[in-house]
Structure formats: structure tokens, C-alpha cells
Design goal:
Blueprint: E1 11-12, E2 25-30, H1 37-47, E3 52-56, H2 59-69, E4 77-82, H3 84-97, E5 104-111, H4 117-121, H5 127-135, E6 143-146, E7 149-151, E8 154-156, E9 158-162, H6 163-177, H7 181-186, H8 189-207, E10 211-216, E11 222-224, E12 230-232, E13 241-246, E14 249-253, E15 275-280, H9 284-289, H10 291-296, E16 304-309, E17 311-324, E18 327-339, E19 344-347
Amino acid sequence: MIAPRPAVPSIWPAAASAGAAGAGLAILVNRNAKRGGRRVAAQIATTLPGASVRLTRTEGEIEAWLGRLATSPSVRAIFAAGGDGTIVALVNAMARMGPPDQDLPTAGILPLGTGNGWAHALGAPKLHRCLALLAGTSGALPTRRCSLIEVEGTLAHFAGSGWDAMILNDYRRQVEQSRGPSRRLSKTMYGYVSAALFRTTPRVALFGNPRVVIENLGPVVYTVDVDGRPRALPELGPGAVLYDGPVGTASVGTCPEFGYRFKAFPFAERIPGFMSVRVYARDALHAVTAIPRLWSGAHPLDGMHDWLATHIRMTFSRPMPLQIGGDAHGMRHTVEYRTITRGIRMVDWRRIPS
């Protein structure tokens, strides 16, 4: 008779030895991660025996874990092992628990998701390489300060309405319906593109684009010239209309990448504290022909309008799907986006010595 495999605990406390690999690191693992949350948690704990590793499924579990970490002054960084949704959940939990007038604790991302937009923008390699880099460093980790966007009380690094939200919904529906060998392919960039081409595009072509009015609610707004340089628009103060016209997608971001190395916001980091606001006004058929240039963040691009702002409001002619950090949030007629003064220092993988 084969003995049952012992249960994997939900928490691996940090090792007593200060010299153990991963000492001072706290790592949140999404229990529901597509690549196997419990298996990955065990892999991380084995490679980084000095780290505190926590498997979580709910916001309450994340906050309880953060509450225990708050009593330890030796934490160097808090990592989220998962996709964009996992790091967004961690960021919001830290924001709810920390002082509202201070930056959030240093955080990092171990990529386990499908798109991994923020992880790629920060230079994160494959998971095994990330763990090897962390095992080889014991001091302060190199970081860079990132801005955050607040949308209806949720903090994220990108959000938007229109095709991006529709494609995300169609992509997830396609993955859920896939079976056999096609399921693995459906989780790749090719699955994302096929969902856009064969699910979203026909529906958009049938119903056409709505209209959107975008108002500047912040003190100053910039546009981007043909060379990609920000140019102030002093005539467009608070309450001024930035755009009134047809819209395929209207999105904001403080991270250059959307996922699958799609450079949806190539100007997101040009001015600290500002978000990139992008409107693509062409119809679905034109968008299909422009996919390579859209994916690479080419500029200028016919039908694309760019601004850098701190607070805007979008009002659509009909309810549109809203996504925040890659997660669906229903339909909205009006949405406000604003950057917050609180930032977060994220681990910059490109600067960790190899």
C-alpha cells in the first residue's frame, strides 16, 4: 500500500538562519495559478529556504499574512507569484493596510500568469531564473518607483474600456472552452490574437464603434509629438474636453506593457506620476491590418490619440465593458481614472547581478 503524500502547508516560515537563501523575502503564491500554485510554492520554498512563502486564495488571507509580516522589520521585499491579477490583489491589500500618506512597501513579481504584462515590463525572466537570481543576493534589491492608477477604489497599473476589455473576456471564454492539445495553445499569445480576430472583431464590426467624451480633470495634461516627446497643453485645463469622437479602445496605463509583450502604453513612464491615456478610433477591420504596429507600440499611428494626464473622465455613448488590471468589472457608461500620490517601488530584475 502506498502511503499518502503529506499535505503541503500553507505557510513556510522564514528560516532562523539569516544566511539562508531568500532570507528577508516574503512571497505570496496564488493558490489558483494556472501553472500550479501548490507545486510552485513548494518549488519556491525549496529554492529559497529563508523566505516566507504563503499560499492564498482570498483577500482576507492576503491581509492576514501581511499583518503578520508587519511585525517583522527584516522583510526586504514582498513578491507576488502569479499574473497581473495576483500583483494587483497584493498591491490593493497593502494599500488598505498601510498609512495612506506613504509609498507602499517594496514589491516584486514572479511571473506565473499568462500575459504577465507588469512582470515583463520590469524585466522578469522565467520563474526558475528569477529564483536563482534571488537565491544569489542577500542585500537590498534594486528597484524603481512605479505610479499607480485608481479606478473606482481599485489600484492598478492599467485599465480601460472597449476592445481591450472585450478581447480579455473573449480570450478567457476561449481558454475555458478549449480542450485537449488546443488548450495549451489557447493560453499563449496566439490564443489571445485568435480571440481578438475570430470572436471580438466580428462582433465589433457588426455593432460598430461607440463615441466617447474624455475630459481632463487634472491641473495639467500633455500630448505626445511625432517624436514621442511630451508637450504641455496649457489651454486644456480642468474640465476641458481632450477628445469627442469614435472609439475602439480607450485605456490608461502606468506600465508600458499590457501582456504578451504587447506595448499598449509606450509613453507610460515618460513623466513620473502621470498615466498614459490612449484612444484608438479606427474600426475593427483597420485594427486587424494594424496589429503588428499596435503590438510594437509604433508611433505615430493612424487613428491613435495620446495624452499624459493625472485625472480624466470618460463618458461613452453606450455602456462599455471595463477591465482593471486585466480583470473584468462589468459594464460602465462613465469611468474616472486618476493617478495617486502614493507610489510603489518594484524590484527591477534587469539590475539584479547575475
